[in-house]
């Protein structure tokens, strides 16, 4: 897998992302970063990564022109300017937009640390989905696939319920949708396989939540759909019923 992170200066966010993904990716993966107007690497990048015990050797700001002859499987922008300037140039790659505030413009002393932690979580989720879906078509930059998935009324309703950010177990969603447990479980498994949801098992229960590694445009589509259609997001705070067997929670 070949991944390129983009931002304007390639001095903070994209360099953090490059170093962090190298830490988690497979050794044969090619991870790089570049900028449309590169500047000097921010010293806080090195100190933040070093505090996380992440290798910084060879890390430097690079101009996008250095990769003019390279093809990447994924190109991930970390600011709106890079997305607007570069997305059309990578029509042959899966282009993903992650919009992270620039920690260099924040006076908070913990800004770089928080950005690195948020990038670390999103990158780990991204890699997890890629490994689980190896060899399959993925959802990360395919609008037609997203809308096909959401065209099913039950799947759309459950996605809107989960858009609140609250984890829900299968029995919660059975109660909230009024559908049978086998049907709810089957559609949850499809949403998980598409990469829209992540699951977490806690004893006999399996909990679902939206995948935080989704591209920002997908998150906005889901959030807007839930906000403008409150009848779909019917979730209320409800206790998990106990009449389900562990085998049914899948």
Structural shape: elongated
Backbone structural class: alpha/beta
Instruction: Please provide the ordered H/E string of secondary-structure elements.
Output: EHEHEHEHHHEHHEEH
Kindly provide the name of the CATH class of the largest domain: Alpha Beta
CATH superfamily of the largest domain: Response regulator
* Oligomerization state: single chain
Task: Please tally the β strands and state the result.
Answer: 7
- What's the arrangement of strands in the largest beta sheet? 2-1-3-4
Estimate the helix proportion, in percent. 40-55%
Task: Give me the secondary-structure topology.
Layout: E1 2-7, H1 13-24, E2 30-35, H2 43-51, E3 74-77, H3 80-86, E4 94-97, H4 111-132, H5 143-150, H6 153-162, E5 168-169, H7 170-177, H8 181-194, E6 197-202, E7 205-210, H9 216-228
Parallel strand pairs: 1-2, 1-3, 3-4
Antiparallel strand pairs: 5-7, 6-7
Helix pairs in contact: 1-4, 7-8
Structure notes:
It comes from Pseudidiomarina maritima. This is ArsR family transcriptional regulator. Keywords: Arsenical resistance, DNA-binding, Transcription, Transcription regulation. One of its GO terms (molecular function) is DNA binding. Helix 7 (170-177) packs across helix 8 (181-194). The strands form two sheets. The chain has a four-stranded parallel beta sheet. It is built from nine helices and seven strands, in the order E-H-E-H-E-H-E-H-H-H-E-H-H-E-E-H. Helix content is 41%, strand content 14%. It is of the alpha/beta class. The chain has helices at residues 13-24, 43-51, 80-86, 111-132, 143-150, 153-162, 170-177, 181-194, 216-228; strands spanning 2-7, 30-35, 74-77, 94-97, 168-169, 197-202, 205-210. It has two domains: 2-132, Response regulator (Rossmann fold, 3-Layer(aba) Sandwich), CATH 3.40.50; 143-248, Orthogonal Bundle (Arc Repressor Mutant, subunit A). The two termini are 30 Å apart. Helix 3 (80-86) links the parallel strand 3 (74-77) and strand 4 (94-97).
